[in-house]
């Protein structure tokens, strides 16, 4: 068996009911999302279908590696009793397949881990921003829990927006459901720590983490005016020129990118084009 036959057998074993073309496209898509997530200040929409397919393939890959490892171990034991060349060749072939599968699995796992870490980094950095974004509006008659340690004040953690407080299906876009649960748990523990450390000694009206008294909000969001590098993937695409102090309203259509051109621009100006798939972030 030559190297081409070995690679072909590995491809058939890893794709299962997925075609090689589908696997390649999904991997390229995930790579582009990973690059975009690293370059953009805000959290991009969670690709649920893509990640479901990728995790299913990872699980299948792990099962294939375990099966090949068991077969290689059995062949190694047989080599002690049978020294024929066929067994040695079969064992070498299995070891090569195992090496290829492990290398491919490590590459995919690194990509997924790095992608998730980038998202979690931004989620925790702008925790209150995304918590308010994905949570339903709080009822005006919400009850306030009393803090036995703070002299009858409101607990800071109980003032947090809760994305799971309302009944029915709630959209957590751009986060996944697991990320939304992590975000609320993380912020609840952090708010509880702040209250026990110093907020309990503050006046009641200053204990919230989303205070906007005096016209200044404590909630910090991502910078949509951050600069990104993009490449045009369609014959032409209009770039939005955002409004600023000089230009009072945004303009769209006056600046046009051509296919293959690489530009540096503000994220808010190319976001819609990226969502349509007209440009890719480099």
Automatic annotation (TrEMBL):
One of its GO terms (biological process) is double-strand break repair via break-induced replication. Residues 75-91 have a biased composition (Low complexity). InterPro entries: GINS_A, GINS_bundle-like_dom_sf, GINS_Sld5, SLD5_C, Sld5_GINS_A. Residues 71-91, 138-172 are annotated as: Disordered. The GINS complex plays an essential role in the initiation of DNA replication. Residues 159-172 have a biased composition (Polar residues). Residues 71-195 form the GINS subunit domain. It is found in: Nucleus. Belongs to the GINS4/SLD5 family. The keyword Iron-sulfur does not apply. Pfam families: Sld5, SLD5_C. This is DNA replication complex GINS protein SLD5. Keywords: DNA replication, Nucleus. Residues 222-281 form the DNA replication complex GINS protein SLD5 C-terminal domain. One of its GO terms (cellular component) is GINS complex.
């Amino acid at each position: 068996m030559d190297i081409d036959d070995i690679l072909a057998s590995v491809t058939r074993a890893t794709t299962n009911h997925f075609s090689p073309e589908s696997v390649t496209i999904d991997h390229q898509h995930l790579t582009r999302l990973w690059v975009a997530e690293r370059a953009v200040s805000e959290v991009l929409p969670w690709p649920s279908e893509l990640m479901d397919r990728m995790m299913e393939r990872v699980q299948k890959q792990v099962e294939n590696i375990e099966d090949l490892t068991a077969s290689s171990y059995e062949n190694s034991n047989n080599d002690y009793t049978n020294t024929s060349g066929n067994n040695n060749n079969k064992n070498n072939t299995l070891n090569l397949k195992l090496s290829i599968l492990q290398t491919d699995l490590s590459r995919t796992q690194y990509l997924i881990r790095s992608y998730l870490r980038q998202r979690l980094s931004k989620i925790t950095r702008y925790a209150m921003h995304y918590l308010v974004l994905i949570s339903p509006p709080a009822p005006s008659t919400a009850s306030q829990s009393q803090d036995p340690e703070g002299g009858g004040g409101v607990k800071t953690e109980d003032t947090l927006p809760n994305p799971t407080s309302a009944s029915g299906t709630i959209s957590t876009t751009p986060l996944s459901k697991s990320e939304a649960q992590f975000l609320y748990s993380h912020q609840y523990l952090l708010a509880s720590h702040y209250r026990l450390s110093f907020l309990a000694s503050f006046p009641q009206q200053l204990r919230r983490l989303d205070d906007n008294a005096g016209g200044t909000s404590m909630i910090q969001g991502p910078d949509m005016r951050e600069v990104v590098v993009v490449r045009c993937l369609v014959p032409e695409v209009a770039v939005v020129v955002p409004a600023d102090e000089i230009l009072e309203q945004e303009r769209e259509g006056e600046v046009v990118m051509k296919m293959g051109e690489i530009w540096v621009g503000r994220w808010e100006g190319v976001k819609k084009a990226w969502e349509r798939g007209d440009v890719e972030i480099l």
